């Protein structure tokens, strides 16, 4: 995990002519998180949030309080996705007993798309309604709020706002600091083709960058970059065999099946289905007809022989 932590401090100094001071840093960090089951071929989906934070003022070698010590915790919500091919037992039968499979429903997900889109937002903010004259913009922060998401043919259409927190210094003697929150609307189409109404998707929005510039005493400009991270899955349904029951053959019914005959495939179908229907085996049918492929063509003729062994 590699990144930068943006830190802003607002404090009161000893200088009477500058009662409020501030400092801002970009602190780089590198750390490694143990995740034994993670592999390089997985598709990662990580969300980072700031957790516990503690600040302590310490003295330097001269005994002056000039050192700021900070401890913070980053919460990592990590998910790793992989595509896995699973062989499922779809059917079974026997030439010795009547077998009835027992099935249960099965749901699975297929990854459709993972896309990290970015959109720029730029707005001018009027300062005419604020008390006093604005002297300086000292800090800009904010967060993203999504109001609406709509599925489109080309992806997900997103509408939302940036809640931009502005901290300013004015010429007011008793209240030099002034804070205000400005709403900056935005909209963007996140490219994510082939998403249907039945598919599931997650969209994470975060503020990647934000900064402001004073244009004059009555107006400033805020620029931001919004990151929209989407991951989408299609949900499939099937069935999986969980067990089976068995009972003796009804040999009176078995006698009605010809001992040997010619089968004509009406459509493409598997040799397995023919063997099951006529109480034969795949190996016997392949041997009698010298088949290399287990799928029959429409109109293909094959010789089928019944193979039933009575079990006492």
Features:
312 residues; mainly beta; three-stranded antiparallel beta sheet; 3 helices; elongated
Structure description:
- The two termini are 67 Å apart.
- The protein has three helices and 14 strands.
- The mean pLDDT is 87.
- A hairpin with a 5-residue loop joins strand 3 (43-59) and strand 4.
- The strands form six sheets. Strands 5-10-9 form a three-stranded antiparallel beta sheet, with no helix packed on it. Strands 6-7-8 form a three-stranded antiparallel beta sheet, with no helix packed on it. It has a two-stranded antiparallel sheet with strand order 1-2.
- The protein is elongated, with a radius of gyration of 35 Å.
- It is mostly beta strands.
- 6% of the residues lie in helices and 62% in strands.
- The longest helix has 8 residues, at 282-289.
- It has helices at 251-254, 271-277, 282-289, and strands spanning 2-12, 20-30, 43-59, 65-81, 98-126, 134-151, 155-170, 177-191, 200-216, 219-247, 260-264, 269-270, 295-296, 301-305.
Q: Strands, helices and their partners?
A:
Blueprint: E1 2-12, E2 20-30, E3 43-59, E4 65-81, E5 98-126, E6 134-151, E7 155-170, E8 177-191, E9 200-216, E10 219-247, H1 251-254, E11 260-264, E12 269-270, H2 271-277, H3 282-289, E13 295-296, E14 301-305
Antiparallel strand pairs: 1-2, 3-4, 5-10, 6-7, 7-8, 9-10, 11-14, 12-13
């Amino acid at each position: 995990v590699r990144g930068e932590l943006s830190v802003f401090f607002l404090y009161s100094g000893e200088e009477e002519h500058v009662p409020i001071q501030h400092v801002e840093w970009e602190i780089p960090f590198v750390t490694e998180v143990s995740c034994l089951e993670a592999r390089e071929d997985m598709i990662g989906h990580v969300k980072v949030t700031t957790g516990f934070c503690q600040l302590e003022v310490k003295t330097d070698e001269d005994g002056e309080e000039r050192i700021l010590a900070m401890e913070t915790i980053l919460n990592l919500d990590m998910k790793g996705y992989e595509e896995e091919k699973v062989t499922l037992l779809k059917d079974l039968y026997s030439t010795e007993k009547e077998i009835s499979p027992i099935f249960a429903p099965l749901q699975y997900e297929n990854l459709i798309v993972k896309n990290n889109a970015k959109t720029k937002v730029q707005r001018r903010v009027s300062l005419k309604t604020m008390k006093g004259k604005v002297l300086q913009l000292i800090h800009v922060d904010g967060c993203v709020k999504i109001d609406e998401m709509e599925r489109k043919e080309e992806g997900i259409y997103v509408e939302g706002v940036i809640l931009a927190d502005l901290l300013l210094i004015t010429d007011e003697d008793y209240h030099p600091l002034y804070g205000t929150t400005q709403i900056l609307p935005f909209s963007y189409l996140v490219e994510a083709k082939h998403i249907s109404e039945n598919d599931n998707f997650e969209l994470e929005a975060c503020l990647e960058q934000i900064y402001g510039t004073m244009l004059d005493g009555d107006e400033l400009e805020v620029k931001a970059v919004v990151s929209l991270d989407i991951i989408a899955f299609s949900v499939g349904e099937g069935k999986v065999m969980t067990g089976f029951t068995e009972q003796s053959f009804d040999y009176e019914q078995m006698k009605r099946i010809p001992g040997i005959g010619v089968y004509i495939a009406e459509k493409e179908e598997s040799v397995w289905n023919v063997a099951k229907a006529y109480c034969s085996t795949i190996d016997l049918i392949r041997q009698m007809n010298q088949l290399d492929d287990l799928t029959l063509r429409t109109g293909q003729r094959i010789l089928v022989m019944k193979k039933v062994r009575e079990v006492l």
